[in-house]
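#struct-queue
[09:14] JT: dropping the first one here, sequence first, then the structure tokens:
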Amino acid sequence: MESTCVRIAIDAMGGDHAPGEIVAGALRAREELGVEVLLVGDPQQIEAALPSKTNLGQIEIVSATEAIAMDEEPLSAIRRKPKASINVAMNLVKNKQADGVVSAGHSGAAMAAALLRLGRLPGIDRPAIGAVFPTLIASKPVLILDVGANVDCRPKFLEQFAVMGSIYSEYVLGTSDPKVGLLNIGEEDSKGNDAAVRANQMLRENSQISFIGNAEGRDVLSGRFDVIVCDGFVGNVLLKFAEAVGDIVLQILREELPQGLRGQIGSAILKPNLKRIKQRVDHAEHGGGLLLGVAGICIIGHGSSQAPSIFNAIRIAKEAVDNSVLQRIQSQYQNQSLQQESSQ
């Protein structure tokens, strides 16, 4: 690419609030993060969503004449609609015209498009969606994966998730020697079903990661772990439960703090503190999940994403590009393959 600036393709037609909120978040990212955004979708709808004073010469719109609805079967829709916005966005990455994709549309369609058009990284059997959660320790997030890409997982898949998650945690989240846990029903290595016991053993024997044992549900947000692996069924339930808890906490604060004169005065005094609380527990601040394991940067946002979430999703994509996450994962597995060949 001619420019060294990070270029992110945005699925402008994906999500409950497309294209208006998607476009607003992308424009904010363009201004504050210095990224180039490629708005992919129906040009007329995208232009109608732009602020009235926007200079169209400074906005790059890539035409896509189709879109995939939330109720469509993902794989068949991807194949039936080659000009869907998510397909066009993935092709931009495949053809080196963009460094990454952000979509708040059909998550299954985004994953299918990524697999079909970008393919898996060598050595990776299944991609995983990683989501960042806040913990009790400020500025110490935990990365959970998988949160929806794979309903059922073999122990080998969980081991690969742990390796990819550790790389992401170290180089993007800035965690030194990330501590890995396996989500389970007890701390003891013997707890859980046969798959969990075998996964525990494989993780413990893997020298590429710092595995410290099983993580129970109460440990997820404790700050003890930096990376926690699980199958996508459990991970998706956990993700949506955590989001609901965060929404409830924020709603309770809004309702209860302003009660009475003392509450109104206190709310005014505590406004900076409340803003920090929101930043820690509001899932909109985390933007979405990075699809790890495919040969391209792909951020899958919530279907209900509004402008702040889209902005943060683009930020995550930029950080993944800047920190060479794909190259580091690929290098890790290439080194592992060489070691296995030399030992034979």
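[09:21] JT: and here's the second one, same format:
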Amino acid sequence: MRTYLPLLFCATLYGSNFVLSSLLLQAFPALHLSAYRLMVSSAFLLIYLVATRGMTKITFRDSVYLVPFVLIGMLLHQVSFFTGLRTTDATTASLILSLAPIFTALFARLFLKEPLTKRMAAGSIVALAGVFFVVGPGGSMGTITEGVWIMFICMLALSGSMILMKKLTERMDAFVATVYTTVLGCISVYPVAVWSEPHVQVEPHFWWWVLLLGSALLIQGLCAVIWNAQIRKVGAAKASLFLNLQPFVAMILGYITLDTPISLTQAAGSVLIICGVVLATVRGQRTRKTQDDKLKFSPVER
């Protein structure tokens, strides 16, 4: 529980990120919003790293995973996330990204040799059915828009980044890896924002800046540190299963803050997604406890 509760905390804040980002897009251009948030989180993490631990030298072998992570997990993920949210509502976007555990488990099996248990596979299938219930033929969306495809790209980038982070944290401290990837992500996103959205004059209200600052510190700062540390403990595939809880959080907050209607198919899809998380995690833990008990009372000891 000491491992799963932090993941649950992060998944809740990640779910709120869809709604908060949708709100912030009313005041900021998409890629500039991404760059500003990365600037805030980078400054916070970098100051904390220098004050507590000091800078760590990056070796060439570290950069083998660090550079691909920045390109995939930061640049591609950030650009596709905020671009997709411009034409996709927060609930649908969160449902699409809840597919990440399935692809993360597949990538983890291929590249990390992590086990793909039957319960984990069954839970992923149930969660996938919940997403398909909403975005598939006959779902509440009706047709698959360009924004949906962009969010699919974002989901694949997220899955790949968790694999790369798992490899990166095997070579360096999780917090140090988080700081360096965030700072390098800011350096990579800002030029793209300036190039794609030139001559932007941002003059939002004071409280928009407060919301941006708070979301950057909590979601892209604190949650990134916690999440990357837990990936090292439980593995990329199992940690990613908690991302399935994002749609439920996004749906409730979207209804409260954005007046986004909740359709019957979205509600049913969320139920399937939550059931998939429970099937893949809670029952898996019970099984492991039973196996430990069998080892504890083995015939040799008796």
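[09:30] RK: nice, looked through the second one.
[09:31] RK: Residues 283-302 have pLDDT under 50 and may be disordered.
[09:31] JT: good to know. The chain has twelve helices and no strands.
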